């Protein structure tokens, strides 16, 4: 409701809430800042990437990708490259939301030597509903030299290719 209100003070409110001590409020403020594409919130969102609560870190990654400026993408890329397993996964899944820079970062990450980055990238690729992402998952499923990456890619490929036909589809998928 705050985001849709169009009130110019909402961005300031969200920035104030980002410094809250409540880990229930911070993710909402982060998502709101992302929805408003509030560039002034980027440094605060970078800071909360270090929070001990995974929901806060996921929301910060999503917000930073939504804001879309270079500094925001750099923070998410740093989280993908240097974070713990949970933060890397959140970063990769957030990057899946950006068809330009985010998808390019996932493509690049799939080729890096770091197994933890490649494993996180698999989670991100699984969220990209494009043929190239499925092809990349299939490649990782067979060609990656680490079983942890191959196994995860295999799980997602099976999930994607064997979807229940009784699940409703979007009209565009039916029409083709």
Total E-strand runs: 0
For the CA atoms, what is the radius of gyration? 17 Å
Overall body shape: globular
How helical, in percent, are the residues?
over 70%
Structural class assignment: mainly alpha
Ordered list of secondary-structure elements with their pairings:
Layout: H1 2-5, H2 10-18, H3 26-36, H4 42-48, H5 54-67, H6 70-82, H7 85-95, H8 101-109, H9 115-127, H10 131-143, H11 147-161, H12 171-175
Helix pairs in contact: 2-3, 3-5, 4-5, 5-6, 5-7, 6-7, 7-9, 8-9, 9-11, 10-11
What does this structure look like?
- The protein is mostly helical and 176 residues long.
- Helix content is 70%, strand content 0%.
- It contains twelve helices and no strands.
- The chain has helices at residues 2-5, 10-18, 26-36, 42-48, 54-67, 70-82, 85-95, 101-109, 115-127, 131-143, 147-161, 171-175.
- It is globular.
- The model has no long low-confidence stretch (mean pLDDT 92).
């Amino acid at each position: 409701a705050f985001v849709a209100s169009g009130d110019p003070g909402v961005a300031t409110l969200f920035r104030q809430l980002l410094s809250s001590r409540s880990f229930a409020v911070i993710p909402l403020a982060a998502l709101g800042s992302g929805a408003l594409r509030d560039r002034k919130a980027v440094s605060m969102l970078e800071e909360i990437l270090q929070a001990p609560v995974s929901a806060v870190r996921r929301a910060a990654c999503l917000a930073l990708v939504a804001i879309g400026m270079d500094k925001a993408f750099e923070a998410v890329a740093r989280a993908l490259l240097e974070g713990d397993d949970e933060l890397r996964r959140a970063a990769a899944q957030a990057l899946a939301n950006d068809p330009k820079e985010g998808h390019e970062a996932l493509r690049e990450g799939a080729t890096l030597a770091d197994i933890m980055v490649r494993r996180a990238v698999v989670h991100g690729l699984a969220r990209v509903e494009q043929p190239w992402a499925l092809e990349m998952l299939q490649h990782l499923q067979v060609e990656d030299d680490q079983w942890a990456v191959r196994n995860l890619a295999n799980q997602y490929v099976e999930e994607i290719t064997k979807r229940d036909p009784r699940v409703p589809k979007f009209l565009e998928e039916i029409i083709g």
